Amino acid sequence: MATQATAQRRLSFLQIAITLQTLTIFLQAVSAGLLLTSSYGETLHSVGARVMYGASMLYVLAAVLAWKPGGGSPRPVLHASGFLVLASVQVVVGIAHVPSVHLPLGVLMFGLSVLALARR
Q1: CA-CA 20 to 30 A from 8: which of 1, 76, 87, 103?
Q2: What's the predicted TM-score (pTM) here?
């Protein structure tokens, strides 16, 4: 009985991490719009990028914690690691000012994050 409660808690942590990641990616889209229209948009987008990257790392941590002790499927770890790779590429192309890659990659990341959230 305690094991089931522990598994639910880990699953909940994983759900929270995916939700946080999805929300931060969405807020990055909002701050990208502000980047184009206001003087403080660049600052918000820059801070948001760091928060989004941290949320991606939290997703990896939550996936590992849900998998390793409970012996569950390693698939969430692979998905979370893939998101971290995408987030890393996103940061690099954002710093390099390559919007032709940065914008579509952001849309892809948001879609995949919503899909991951719906699967949980």
Answers
A1: 87
A2: 0.85
